[in-house]
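Batch manifest line 521
LIGAND: flavin-adenine dinucleotide
JOB: complex structure
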Amino acid sequence: MPQALNHRYRRLRLILGDQLNLEHSWFNKPDASTLIVVAELKQEASYVKHHVQKVCAFFAAMEQFAQALQQRGHHVLYQTLDDTAEYDSLESFITALCARFDVECFDYIQPDEYRVSKQLQDLDLPSAVQKQSFDAEHFLLPLTELDQHFTTGKSARMETFYRSMRRRLNLLMDGDEPEGGRWNYDQENRKKLSPAAVTELPKPLLFSNDVSGILQRLRRHQIACIGREQYVLPWPVNREQANALLQFFCQVCLSNFGTYQDAMTANSESDWSLYHSRLSFALNAKILHPLSVVNAAIAAYRNNSEVNLAQVEGFVRQIIGWREFIRGIYWSNMPEYAVHNALGATRQLPEYFWTGNTRMRCLEKAITNSLDHSYAHHIQRLMVTGNFCLLAGIDPAVVDDWYLGIYLDALQWVELPNTRGMALYADGGLVGSKPYAAGGNYIKKMGDYCESCHYDVKLRTGEGACPLNSMYWHFMARHKERFQSNHRMRMLYGTWNKMGDETQCAVLDQAEHYLNIIEQL
Ligand SMILES: Cc1cc2nc3c(=O)[nH]c(=O)nc-3n(C[C@H](O)[C@H](O)[C@H](O)COP(=O)(O)OP(=O)(O)OC[C@H]3O[C@@H](n4cnc5c(N)ncnc54)[C@H](O)[C@@H]3O)c2cc1C
Ligand code: SF4
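JOB STATUS: finished
ARTIFACT:
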């Protein structure tokens, strides 16, 4: 899409790969003295080993975004990996562009990741160039108001935050009270899929974006990636596709979203997508605005009798509650948050996280889904891979790298508090009041993985016993000092204490055996 550019511009404006917000006020009207830069950078493609579909999705969406801006009359410089190969960092690239176009002003949108934010904050341009940062105009709670809800180093509770957001945005409200009289419909939600319900799962809406050119560039510049490579990318990379996915979700999935939010199955072609929206990439790349997403869901609830309040509330909670809450935790605790390791976990990630080659059916499915689609639904991330890493005591730094690399929607601001906080309790309880630890029973309760597993979920010890069962108690025993006075865990320690020495020893021996052969599980 070559566009005739001027030799000189007064202003250079940078758009990062996760700032593809066509509604941003920067783009209200074209200005011939402003050059907008969108660039594929090696530093972004390789700060962690990404899933190949993730890099393709970001680059494809950036290309489409640049084209959309050009069509609206903006002057846009799109730089591919070929064009930027000579720059080893964002700073050297920006400095060179400022000189090349002889600009007086360099503008950027406040990055959501600490790493990039720091780079741009520290960027030392010649004194003739004025540097200014602008709001992303995306999140529902302004950055400047985060300190009213979050305090560095102090725990915050999602439920309180969520209620304040419902009131603030006046969503599903009846005056000052929640519509329907309740804030939370979790009790109605979160069911297991029956075998009949598994057969009714909808086929996910997929797209066909040709990314062969991007794949060639990745090869040319030796960007090492993980996961299944696809020349035709099924993820939405522009507004039309993202809106089509949103409509598909509202019409086909929303009526069952809450009900099967935590369900897991291995028995359907749609077992990786279920009734989930798969909108996280479009949201995190800012192709979609969170308010337009929740408004579409609420409109579907008002107009479609099959969508009830429990379903729509469950969905609204994820977007205006969890997503904004996680961002608040991140920004009020960085950079310290990135090194928290409250439980002193040090083990390495087993090799099967990169291959899916394990006899534990639950892990095999969650990992294979992730490698195939660059996606896993929430409960796979939290209660399968996350829970395993928690119980096994895997070093949070390597777990972070895995999550940050493998998922299409992974950006540090959202990945880090979910992984270190919610899944690993490495933040010592800033996100959750207790660890989300579970044995095999939970996996059995919420899905059908155990039915086709090599291990027996009913056994705690002995040959073929489900590894999660003994590892669960091993985790509780080794962190007894920390957790036994937590009122939400008192009953659990009561059960442990009642087991008696002999049973406790057998369970701990079993767990230690499994931990010793963790690579062979
Ligand atoms: C260990 C772990 C790591 C995670 N890493 C990421 C990540 O890197 N990027 C990411 O966007 N989400 C992450 N999540 C949150 C959540 O799992 C994903 O947002 C969700 O699975 C994306 O799929 P979906 O769009 O189909 O979500 P749906 O189930 O359809 O939910 C709708 C939307 O709600 C939002 N949402 C729901 N839960 C969360 C949450 N806990 N935090 C933030 N937003 C939430 C997302 O925007 C999501 O698109 C992680 C969760 C865990 C437990
Ligand atoms: S038996 Fe254990 S390891 Fe196997 S699927 Fe069930 S919970 Fe996972």
